[in-house]
Sequence to fold (914 residues):
Amino acid sequence: MSDHLSKLEAQSVYILREAYREFKNLCMLWSIGKDSTVLLWLARKAFFGHVPIPLVHIDTHYKIPEMIKYRDRLALEWNLNMVYGENREALEHKLTFPDGKVDRIACCRNLKSEALKHTLSGGWPRYRMDHQQKKYVLDTNKEPYTGVIVGVRADEEGSRSKERYFSPRDINNEWDVGDQPPEFWNQFKTDFAPGTHVRVHPLLDWTELNIWEYIERENIPVVSLYFDQGKGKRYRSLGCYPCTKPVDSTANTVKEIIAELRRGKFANIAERSGRDQDKEDGGGLETLRRDGYM
Amino acid sequence: MIRTKKTAGDWKPCAVTGICDMTNRQRMNIVIVGHVDHGKSTVIGRLLADTGTLPQGKLEFVREMCRKNAKPFEYAFLLDALKDEQAQGITIDTARCFFKTRKRDYIIIDAPGHIEFLKNMITGAARAEAALLVIDAQEGIQENSKRHGHLVSMLGIKQVTVLVNKMDLVAYDKNVFGSRQSAYTDFLKQLNVVPVSFIPISAREGENITVLSGRMKWYKGHTLLEQLDEFEPEKILADKPFRFPVQDVYKFTQNNDDRRIIAGTVAAGSIKPGEEVVFLPSRKRAVIKTVEAFNEPPKLSAHAGDATGFTMATQVYVRPGELVVAATDPAPQVGSRFKANIFWMGRAPLIKNKVYKLKLAATRTTVRLVEITQTIDSSDLSIQEKKNQLDRHDVAECVLETAKPIVFDTAHDCETTGRFVIIDNYEIAGGGIILEASSVEGSILEEHIRQRENIWEKGLITSFRRSTKNGHQAKFIIFSGAVGVGKRAIAKKLEEELFAHYSNVYYLGIANIDRGLDADITGSRDNLEERIRRLGELARIMTDAGLIFITTIDNADDYDLEALKLLNEPNEIVVINVGENELSHFQVDLALPASVDPSRAVEQVIKMLKSKEVILEYYL
Ligand SMILES: Nc1nc2c(ncn2[C@@H]2O[C@H](COP(=O)(O)OP(=O)(O)O)[C@@H](O)[C@H]2O)c(=O)[nH]1
Fold:
């Protein structure tokens, strides 16, 4: 138990079990990226091979197709209770950045924040993987999720370094950064007034390097987009293809990515710098985040 | 965007030697606290600058800014500049700064010193393995220096180093340092805190930060940086008695999984398959069969810090919140009253006669304040006049009583099972460490019943006249057992059978209470005790009316039944268990198998009632 990965793992498992114990309507967001995939793996650790928590994916329909294929493959293989939601209306009316009707921030707000809010509340349709038919069907469960597990890390960017493991959101999904509950001795805020809900952050203490070290140790399957496919480019952070750019790198194995990070190749470049919405306005992500963006 | 973490430059020794092994690096959390203006931010700024941890060009940038605005340069501005970047204009919480030495990575948690930020300070400090307390050599020990010492002690941070800062202002005088050291040592001693070291520094001038000062040749100890590397990582409590709070019990049936796994994180000690354990407070015993894991070969043991799970050689039915201990280890305390040191952060005060929720390790229960034995002014540790309530930011020694007996250790013996938080109005409002078990001269419940019965107003009919007229005694009959064992069918049949023979009998469908009398109680799990209390009070009235009052309760435990028995006094209860008997010491009056035919069951119940003379032989 002395090595740092086992310590991080134990703490995350503890948090996941605590969330599972305390919240009746719990879900876990799965963006298909490396962090939330590690989170999913940790759930299998916590629950001894099972994942008794529904996984929610917000489909913007601009995800790189490989991501969706990978999602559905694992959903079937690992027997996941897989649910997705989307902003049908914005997509139909083409209120998106790629369609040229809105800027990047508004696009994110439409396709992610809004879609997320209404998928979590059960207000908009949810689609659930039917394991017999191997396809998605309309989910009959419309209950709001009151606990949402999210794979954010404190080292990702400024606003996230102030998160708690259990972080309350009010009825409007808003986050009061200035007045957060105390958290000590591994006791978290697990009591909530009706109408409020909580974000749970089991990966808060992990770094980008830890994530890759753990993927290597556990041999966790990740999307091949993270690796160089021979063109000297790979993705460091995954999002929608119109707004995500790969970085220059020839790393094509997990080991090589780890070596790259340890060498400090990206020491002065933010992990999400390939994500254009962060740059659009000064505190872009902060604004989105308060509105419930992950 | 430039971020502090990734921009960590090499600290010189790594660069010099070229061997800075980045694999499997240790990480340590250090909290830094101090009275406002004693130089905390300057110390951090210095550390970052002198270890080359600042983002490229940051130092020059801040110097340039100062020059432009004709302000003297401050190392503290470095921190402000970083914070702004991190904060993006929103309120700062406990900020974290990262830097590394050859030995390991550090997270310096900058805990806001002001009392208004107590919540944040505690959140930050509780994660720390060591603390740096900064005091001003010239000003000496201030109110907050003392308060912080107190909290560091309560939070259980064992390693403390005191930085006596601004030595330049006292001409690097050995005697000033000596007097600050002895005064603060005396103060901390009362809190059972023995600092690892005192270091005289000048953060502004960089004395004794990364290299030994030429201006304080009399000082022979470590520099601040050396001291950081000297701190020891949190001790793994492997040699302590085994303590395993049951966080949950899993039975996932998917893929024909038939394991029943007792899950949790080992708080102290270790255990191996084949060893016998005791569950407390239920006192059930079992032998560990396996240590479960996913994507790993089966484990041969589990140790402090492991988030793990066990299967048992024999099936035991236990609930989350119990504590597993090794049968051969010293036992923890089991009781409902204890003395604790409490710090209060709630907006509303902690008062008597109010029910709060308590969380201790995996246990959740309700708790009341019995007594405040002494309030301590944390700035001078003087004992204040007796208070009746704890106000925000108060620290006090109190006696608490839980609704049911719980299992605990003193914080001194085992931290995880010796400290707790108190929830008021959905918020963590206080934290406490257990000092000792308190003897109970009658629980709050017993006291309540004594008072209630003293002033119970009776009509003109005595219970004797009632039972004579009815031809049976008044009785509260409870069917207990797991969900789905057929309790309700038997209970209803019994009501019908007794009714047919002129008994005054009433069957209460327990769910009716949920929707009526208990409709205001939300959150089913934690408020079980309040539900039990109301049911018991209701039974008291029903039996006073001379009825045979019948109901069913799912999964009642020993303490639920004991509480109901008390609440129903002076009348008596009869308990009939159906199916697996999960009770450990409560004696049931009759045990029936699960799914027994209701008519056959009722025959047995009637026989038992007759033998107890609840109903008379000739009536049936
Ligand atoms: N003379 C002197 N002044 C110092 C020293 N360390 C800090 N200060 C000054 O004390 C003031 C408060 O320091 P700061 O680090 O902001 O204190 P904080 O409130 O504890 O973070 C600033 O004006 C600093 O320049 C020191 O070692 N010597």
Q: What stands out?
A: The first strand of chain B starts at residue 27 and ends at 34.
